[in-house]
# Entry
Amino acid sequence: MSNPTPLAALYQTVVQEELGLVARADDDGDVVFRYPDLGTMFFSLSESDPEFLRLVYPSFVDAGELGLTRVQLLEVINAVNHRCKAVKLSLQQDRDGKAGRVSASLESFVAAPDTLPAEALLRAIVARCVSVIRHSAGELVKDALELKQAAAQ
# Structure
């Protein structure tokens, strides 16, 4: 995106200055960045709902890589969602009806209706937002491996 919206420009600045990462606004107005050891994440933004923050870590692991059935994986996802603050893990179904890939997101309201969030607030929370995503992804993999090992015994 050549001229980011004020909302995208705000998030881009915060990611670059607080996390020290290169960030860019894409054609949808989202702010995309690569986090070391994790991969691509993005803030999904909407000019019509500027107070809503959604950080997405898309498709970070495939169900097949974890060696669990769809039902087992959904149970692990549910346990992690219940245990971890602010995060929402979801399982996408692929075209063949197989389990698919797991994504994580963090969602919150960070300003009054129709108001841009305060830059100071975003600066104060951006590292924790990424940390929650990292933690929940790690918990998912850890729990999946533990379940797989227990089933093998």
About this structure: The longest strand covers residues 52-62. The chain has a mean pLDDT of 93.
